[in-house]
Design a protein that fits this description.
Blueprint: H1 3-17, H2 25-28, H3 32-55, H4 64-80, H5 86-108, H6 113-133, H7 135-138, E1 151-152, E2 155-156, H8 160-184, H9 186-194, H10 196-201, H11 206-232, H12 243-255, H13 260-277, H14 284-298, H15 303-322
Helix pairs in contact: 1-8, 1-13, 3-8, 3-11, 3-12, 3-13, 4-5, 4-6, 4-11, 5-11, 8-11, 12-13, 13-14
Length: 323
């Protein structure tokens, strides 16, 4: 393993490790505000990780809300049919988006550039129509309500602190899946990111690795949908709107699209600040927009990306002076 790849692995591993302490959050406090923030942050991190996987191949995908909806509604349907085991629901929320992403990827991944971005964004609008217009399956505008609490080996996890615990566990599973995929195929993803044509000319099966990334991103997004449905005990179309995709993309870019840690930092910062700005009334949107512009201008590579670049330059300078 090259020194650069070791550094990449360490940064990505930090994106998983920093989520672990949140397992104690449900038992460290009973404050509903902290519970709410933890839920929001972890769901934002999961969604941002789904975006990050595609960005590793220089693909900006807006399909995250669609696959979140598939995962969330799948878990809701399984639960309402009497199966509430956490492991089963996690598996269903991950596998169903994957199964849908395979044939969809054959169609979508043929597109490039703005056409790919446009199609993935429009897909969310199509999903919204399908959710509203299939009441026999999805409950239509009423959604699927009265979802029973998740259980683990027969223990119900319906109390507020347990709901947060399930969300954090789901986030760790999503981060572990993201780490496994992006590390296993890091070289191939990097080659596609740097020069897709050159990568193809030297034998890299671009379509294959694009499909792997697209499918993995769908599965991770589905876990985010399950976390939302579990929190609310309801699956509703309003939780999976197209506009939410813009937020998820912003999390990845603000934190730094080059590492998993960037997704965690970006989601945490923007969600905390969004909650703070919400108390400013009519100025909330303007303040949030100003924050985004300031971070992008000050740190074009994202917060984590700029910090990482700073320390790498210092390290190179030290090695140069030592010689």
């Amino acid at each position: 393993m090259t020194p650069k790849r070791v550094r990449d692995f360490r940064f990505d591993s930090c994106g998983l490790i920093v989520l672990a302490p949140l397992l104690a959050a449900p038992f460290a406090t009973a404050n509903p505000l902290y519970f709410s923030l933890t839920n929001q942050i972890v769901v934002g991190v999961i969604a941002s990780l789904a975006v990050y996987i595609m960005l590793r191949m220089n693909l900006l995908s807006f399909t995250v809300p669609t696959f979140m909806a598939v995962g969330g509604y799948t878990a809701a349907m399984i639960s309402t049919h009497g199966v509430t085991n956490l492991l089963v629901l996690l598996a269903g929320a991950f596998v169903m988006p994957v199964l849908i992403a395979v044939p969809l990827g054959v169609l979508v991944l043929r597109l490039k550039g703005v056409y790919f971005i446009f199609f993935t964004f429009i897909l969310n609008e199509v999903t919204q129509v399908m959710l509203f217009e299939t009441p026999d399956l999805t409950g239509g505008s009423n959604g699927i309500s009265g979802i029973p609490p998740v259980t683990f080996f027969g223990i119900p996890l319906g109390q507020q602190n347990y709901l947060v615990l399930v969300t954090v566990i789901t986030g760790i599973v999503a981060a572990a899946a993201t780490l496994a995929v992006t590390q296993r195929f890091r070289a191939e993803f990097a080659a596609i990111d740097e020069n897709e044509t050159l990568a193809e000319s030297v034998g890299v099966a671009v379509w294959k690795y694009r499909t792997i990334g697209f499918v993995a991103s769908a599965g991770v997004a589905g876990l985010g949908g399950f976390a939302i449905v579990n929190q609310l005990s309801t699956a509703h179309p309003s939780e999976f709107t197209s506009f939410s995709a813009i937020n998820y993309v912003a999390y990845a870019f603000v934190g730094g699209k080059g590492t998993m840690l960037g997704s965690v930092v970006g989601a945490t910062l923007l969600i905390l600040m969004s909650n703070y700005f919400s108390s400013q009334g009519a100025y909330a949107s303007a303040l949030f927009g100003l924050l985004l512009m300031s971070v992008v201008m000050a740190a074009p590579g994202g917060i984590v990306g700029e910090i990482r670049q700073f320390f790498e330059k210092r390290s190179q300078a030290r090695r140069g002076s030592a010689k």
